[in-house]
Automatic annotation (TrEMBL):
SMART domains from the UniProt entry: HNHc
Family: Belongs to the HNH nuclease family.
UniProt-listed InterPro entries: HNH (IPR002711), HNH_nuc (IPR003615)
Protein name: Putative HNH nuclease YajD
Naturally occurring in which organism (per UniProt): Caloramator proteoclasticus DSM 10124
Keywords assigned by UniProt, alphabetized: Hydrolase, Nuclease
GO cellular component annotations of the record: cytosol
KW Nuclease (keyword) present: yes
Residues in HNH nuclease domain copies: 51-107
Gene3D superfamilies per record: 1.10.30.50
Zinc listed as a keyword: no
Length: 126
């Protein structure tokens, strides 16, 4: 089966041809840069304390809060921070700042807050 032709690396000024977006050298560099700048507070979500709190919260709140407002009964899958914590530990652990949401509602809310596809600060209306 024929393969797609290789294309130039997307790193500015790099002439290497690649099957992906970046050549091997720049793929590692861009991944490292992305991980360093993206969600520096990710470690909070990997903690045992968060995992236990999440399970406890979903047991106590098994239905999606947003769907419930519309009269729809849907199981919750995600524990969401009502006010984005952006690394603020006090806000992160505040149980009154948590709500149970289905994945669809959580993704919609997150897209509105963060700006879709990296366009931060834009307001979306439905």
């Amino acid at each position: 089966m024929p393969r797609k032709p290789k294309r130039p690396c997307s790193y500015p000024g790099c002439p290497e041809l690649t099957d992906g977006r970046y050549c091997e050298r720049h793929e590692k560099e861009m991944t490292r840069e992305y991980n360093r700048n993206n969600r520096t507070y990710k470690y909070l979500y990997n903690s045992t304390r968060w995992k236990r709190l999440r399970i406890k919260f979903l047991k106590e709140n098994p239905l999606c809060a947003e769907c419930g407002k519309k009269g729809i009964v849907r199981p919750a899958e995600v524990v969401d921070h009502i006010i984005p914590h952006k690394g603020n530990k006090e806000l992160f652990w505040d149980e009154s700042n948590l709500q149970a949401l289905c994945k669809e509602c959580h993704d919609r809310k997150t897209a509105k807050e963060d700006g879709r596809w990296g366009r931060k600060g834009e307001v979306y209306k439905y």
